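Hey, can you fold this one?
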Amino acid sequence: MPRDIDPSLNRRRLRIELRKARENAGMTQRDAAKALEWSLSKLIRIEAGTVSLGVTDLRALLQLYEVADPQLVAELEDAARGSKGQSWWAQYSDVVSPQYALYLGYEGSADVIRMYNPVILPGLVQTADYATALLSAMTPETRLRQQVDLRLTRQERFFDGDDGPEIDIVLDEASVRREIGGASVMRRQLDHIQELAQHPRVTLRLLPFSAGAHYSVTTPFILLGFKDDDDLLYLEGPGGGLSSRDDLDLMASYQECFEEISAIAYEGDRMSELLATVRESLDNG
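Sure. Predicted structure:
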C-alpha cells in the first residue's frame, strides 16, 4: 500500500520548518516562548514533533519569525491541519511502547533505512510464522496476534507499492541458522529472504561467522537517513531507544560499523549460496 501522509510526518515537517525559521530570526526557544507568553515546554514539544499544532498557534509563530512566503505559509497550515489525528500504529497502542511509537514516526519519513541484528532476523524480513514463533516465547498470548499484525502491517507499508525508502539490511549468519519455529518455518523464512532480495528498493547482505568480532556484535541497531535532517540512531532491546542527535560520537560509531560489516558481508550470488546451504541443512536435519 502507498505510504499515506501520517500525522507524525506532518508534525515532522512543522518541526523542521519552525526550528529553521526561529534560528533564522535569531531567537532561542526561550525567547520565542517568552514573546508568545507560552511555556517553554510547549515550544520544545512542538519543535520535537511530539504534539500536534493548531493553525492559530502556527500563525502566531510564523508572524513572530517573520515568515511571509505565501506558498510556505499555506503548506505549513495544511501540515498543521494534518498534524492531528491518530497514526497508523494507534490500533496497536497496547503493544507499542512510547519509545517505539516515537521511532515509528521517524521511520515513516526516512529516505534511507539501514539495519543490523546479530541474533535474530529483523522484523521487516520476518514471515508471519517466524514472527509468531519468535514472539510467542516472550509475549503473553493475549497480545501475540497484535504484535504479529503490527509487524506485518509495518512491512506492507514499506514493500507494497513503488513509493518508499531505500532499505539496506545486513543479516547475520547466526540469525539465519537459529531455528525459530522449527525446520519448516525456517525453510519458508529463508525462501522469503531470497524473494525479498529481489525487491527494487531493498539491499540484503549476509554477514558470515568468519567476519569475527565488530563494534555491534551484541547490539541490534537501525540507522535512519533523511535528506532534510540529521540521521537518527535507534538501538533495539529493553534498554534501547532513539539516540540524541547531539551524541555525534555514538552515531559515528554505528555508521562506521555498518559500513564495515557491509563491506565484508556476502551479497548477491554469494549470499544466495550460503542461504541455500543453510536451507539444505534443514532438509537433512
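The domain at 7-81 is CATH 1.10.260.40 (434 Repressor (Amino-terminal Domain)). Let me know if you want another pass with a different chain boundary.
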